[in-house]
Design brief:
101 residues, mainly beta, Immunoglobulin-like, five-stranded antiparallel sheet, three-stranded antiparallel sheet, 39% strand, glycoprotein, signaling receptor binding
Length: 101
């Protein structure tokens, strides 16, 4: 399988380093794809099918880039994903549609 980047950028290039970044697959129970909070990846509750296949671009977080790299793409990865970014005062979310050819 190849790698795929699911794009997610916060407006105005605000740093997301101190925020919480959650990636979910929509319409699937327990579908946590990736969680970053308190300055690190916290993937103990990650859906098993995504284990060791997800990563953020750590050096890009300060530029407001919360895009997710999904490795070893599978047909089962097809679907809609939600990127949810939150800090104490605001939250933002973006939907990304993945089609596996």
């Amino acid at each position: 399988g190849e790698d795929l980047v699911l794009p997610c950028f916060i407006k105005s290039n605000t740093s997301v380093v101190d925020m919480r970044v959650e990636w979910f697959k929509l319409n699937v129970e327990d579908s946590l794809v990736h969680l970053y909070k308190d300055h690190e990846d916290r993937n103990e509750d990650q859906a098993p099918s995504y284990r060791k296949r997800t990563s953020l671009f750590k050096e890009e977080l300060q530029k407001g880039n919360a895009s997710l790299k999904l490795s070893a793409l599978r047909v089962s990865d097809e679907g809609k994903y939600k990127c949810f970014i939150a800090d104490k005062s605001q939250s933002d979310d973006i939907i990304v549609n993945v089609i596996v050819e």
